[in-house]
Specification:
single chain, about 190 residues, alpha/beta, Pyruvate-ferredoxin Oxidoreductase, domain 3, six-stranded mixed sheet, 6 strands, globular
C-alpha cells in the first residue's frame, strides 16, 4: 500500500495531540507502519499546532510536504484555509466550523475572513464541515471536539467502527471514555 498522509491542525489546547495519538493507535492496530510528528509552534499562546500522521506498508519519514496530504483534519476554520496548500489533488478537508480569533483579529489589525467553507469549495476542494463544538457539547463535554472529528474521519476509512471505538477507549482516561464514545458516534453519524 502506498503511504497515506493525514494532517491534524488546530490551535493550542484543542486536543490535536490526543487525536493524533488515537489515530496512530488505530492504524498500528490495523497493521500499518505509522509515523507521527508534532509541531507545537506557540501552542500555549493560542498558536497553531500541527500533527503529521503517515501510514502504509513502510513509512520512512513522519513529515508531509505541500501537496501530499490525503486528509486535513482542522479543529478551526481558519486553520483549514491556512493549511490547504498541503492537501493533494483529490484530498479532503474535514473541519470543525468553530472560529477562534487569531491575535491580529483580537488586536483589531485584521478581520476574521468570512465564508471560508464556500471559498474552499469554490477552489474545488472537498470539504466536510461540521459543528464539532455543538456535537461535543451534546456528548457531554465541549473538550471532545477532537473525538467528534475522529468520528467524522472514520466515515472515510475501511477500518471497522469497533476498531475506532477500541482506539478511543485506549486513548482517553477511563473516566472520560463514555463521553468520548458518544462524541465519536455523533461525529460519525451526523
Amino acid at each position: 500500500m502506498e503511504t497515506k498522509n493525514i494532517m491534524i491542525v488546530g490551535v493550542g489546547g484543542q486536543g490535536t495531540l490526543l487525536a493524533s495519538k488515537l489515530l496512530g493507535q488505530l492504524l498500528l492496530s490495523a497493521g500499518y507502519d505509522v509515523k507521527v510528528a508534532e509541531v507545537h509552534g506557540m501552542s500555549q499562546r493560542g498558536g497553531s499546532v500541527i500533527t503529521y500522521v503517515r501510514y502504509g506498508d513502510k513509512v520512512y519519514s513522519p513529515l508531509i510536504d505541500q501537496g501530499e496530504a490525503d486528509y486535513i483534519i482542522s479543529f478551526e476554520l481558519l486553520e483549514a484555509a491556512r493549511w490547504m496548500p498541503y492537501l493533494k489533488e483529490g484530498g479532503r478537508i474535514i473541519t470543525n466550523t468553530q472560529q477562534m480569533d487569531p491575535m491580529p483579529v483580537i488586536t483589531g489589525a485584521a478581520e476574521y475572513p468570512e465564508d471560508i467553507v464556500s471559498k474552499i469549495q469554490a477552489k474545488g476542494v472537498p470539504i466536510d464541515a461540521i459543528d464539532g463544538l455543538a456535537l461535543a457539547s451534546e456528548a457531554g463535554s465541549a473538550r471532545a471536539v477532537n473525538i467528534v472529528l475522529m468520528g467524522r474521519l472514520s466515515r472515510y476509512f475501511d477500518i471497522p467502527e469497533e476498531q475506532w471505538l477500541d482506539a478511543v477507549r485506549k486513548s482517553v482516561p477511563p473516566k472520560f471514555v463514555e463521553v468520548n464514545l458518544k462524541a465519536f458516534e455523533l461525529g460519525r453519524n451526523c
